[in-house]
Amino acid sequence: MPGRTMFQKIWDDHVLADLGDSFYLLHIDRHIMHDLGGPGGILSVEQRGLRIRNPELTFATADHAISTAKGRAGTSGVGVRLLEGLRTGTRSAGIRLFDIGEPVQGIVHVIGPELGLTLPGALLVCGDSHTCTHGGIGAMAFGIGTTEVTHVLATQTLVQPQPKTMRVHLEGDMAVGVTAKDLMLHVIGAIGVGGGSGYAVEYAGSAIRNMSIEERLTICNLSIELGAKIGMIAPDEKTFAYLKGRKFAPAGELWDRAIAYWRALPSDADAEFDHEVEIQVDNVAPHVTWGTSPEQVLPVDGMIPDTATLADAGKREAAAAALKYMGLQPGRPIIGTPVDWVFIGSCANSRISDLRSAAKVARGRKVASTVRAWVVPGSESVKRQAEAEGLDHVFRDAGFEWREPGCSMCVAANGETVPSGQRSVSTSNRNFVGRQGPGARTHLASPAMAAAAAIAGHIADVRKFEELT
Amino acid sequence: MKPFGVLTATAAPFLRDNIDTDIIIRIERLVGLMGHADLGHWCFELLRYLPDGSENPDFILNQEPYRQSEVLLAGANFGCGSSREGAVWAMMGMGLKAVLAPSFGQIFYNNCFQNGLLPIVLPRTSIEEIISELRPDSGGTSVTVDLERQFVVSPGGREYTFETPPLRRQALLDGVEADDLSLTLKREAEIAAFQARDRWRRPWIYESVEVLS
Ligand code: SF4
To answer: Across the beta sheet with A230-233, what order do the strands follow?
Structure first.
């Protein structure tokens, strides 16, 4: 019998019942809720006359619909209602809420790992598609819909079809100025936004092993942009060092037992995957998207593609519509495209290492007069750490706005939008039509590339900036 | 959830790949706490309406006879992106009952079954063939979807078989009583037994969140 993949090991340990035809009833170890889905989720359980089965395994925070302005000024009426709903609901259900103003509030996918709620081998869900982020710790984590949230709250389980497995090997050393974000944009460009559909993806290889935990979280965050609900990376000594001492991580004798279990999680050497992909990372350049899907991406020194040459009718139609929406001319370099907005934040890139890398570019420089630039830390902890390092001053001095933690302009759920027709370089994960506001034109990039665009006033190659090394 | 019978209805061609759930329903509309049915008005908002709020005549679902469509003939990776179940509610709110596509976003695919919107996976070539048989001028735009026997009949009478996960298919055919939650609630004893075993095997999962106040 061949060995087992990490995915299979974790899956097997959560199977409560085999429902046939590759559907299973799975136990849910951790459930996180946010202000958009949380209030309705709790209400739906009550409406069905049920109780919340394991309130101690569910956690909540506010991130999507709250304002990220100072003092949370400008949270809309609906945002306030949602937050109130979350407060009342979690209080009556006995669910722990990390409210605004508390020292650990932040974006769901940033605070999960930070608090040690996310653990290797744990099955974690959240009513949000970027839940795959938590796979960077070695958890099996995926986004769920509203009905599924109700199911989890009422039963602490979920009915799921078992996905196939894919392993993406990322081998080699990333060049200077290239980040985990660039690498994943490259991978999405290569495999396509539907390429991971139906798979649980494991990222492996020397480039992954050499990455910090925060970089691994960025890699896994973008799995859903590959079409994969689940992305995961084997836990290693770095993972354990990252988790040790975190608020909800096991301690003492529990820690020793947990670590013994975690060490056995990585895929066996002879494990078989349904699909394997190998990508050399040495020559990958900083990337930026040109279209309205994350797969519509190119190296920053590349040319905006001529869509007429695409063979596939579906892709051709999508690409032509994207170019029109983005207001771009095929065949021209993407560098030099004027930018109106820069957004540094989101669960893809709002951790401390992201802010450090953007600050390196911003230090001692000025944001172009034609650009409005925001930095939105992913959590209160990130914000505190950044302020302790003086990064807030670096950004402010350069002309960036330094804001409060939340999803902000990644999703435009609270009126924090890029105005129609304006162009933004954003470190978030979705360049969909209207994602940052109706008519907004989004280019996805790394934090360093976003900072470079803010300074230059147009899409720029961060490798042309000094002090990077 | 209503039982899904045999559906014969107008099918609209909408072959663009990677239609994401942000396009299907904007987040602002979901934040607005609207009823599910009301979301139908905002379904495909950015494609369906012009900036001044009037209908965009170029959008297929604004054209006759496709205004009455209950079936969508879609491109690959339909429903990718955000997990928002509101995308399914919005589509059902505007009268859609089935989507045929070469592939679907996984979370969207699951969400469809929870609400009774039928996602059907068919090869792109089959979908293109069905589209080529649409005759909007002479009223030949209807397809038949038979979930029980798992086939689609094109306007020209060609049959295409498809597969739906048996568990999901049965739930759709039976309607409300077979939803996941009703069935899982009957397994309470199994859940309790699992947790008791699991506590012993992986105590940190439970204890590390209990000891703290
Ligand atoms: S930052 Fe953006 S992608 Fe991440 S959870 Fe918030 S809205 Fe979703």
So the answer is: A230-233, A199-204, A164-171, A275-280
In order of their start, the domains of chain A are 9-275 (3.30.499.10), 292-468 (3.30.499.10)
For ligand 1, is residue A407 a contact (CB within 6 Å)? yes
Question: Domain residues of chain B, as ranges?
Answer: 6-176
Residue B98 to residue B48: CA distance in whole angstroms: 19
The predicted complex's ipTM stands at 0.93
Question: Strand, coil or helix: what is B193?
Answer: helix
CA distances from A343 to A234, A281, A378, A427, A454 (A): 31, 26, 12, 6, 9
Q: pLDDT tens, A249-298? A: 999 999 999 999 999 999 999 999 999 999 999 999 999 999 999 999 99
**Residue B210: which pLDDT band, with cuts at 50, 70 and 90?**
confident
| Nearest Cα to Cα of residue B75 among A457, A321, A69, A285 | A321
What superfamily would CATH give domain B6-176? Aconitase, domain 4 (3.20.19.10)
Contact B15 A317 (CB under 8 A): yes
Sign of the CA dihedral running A345, A112, A411, A143: positive
Q: Taking CB atoms and an 8 Å limit, are A78 and B195 in contact across chains?
A: no
A328 Cβ contact list (under 8 Å, min separation 6): A290, A304, A334, A337
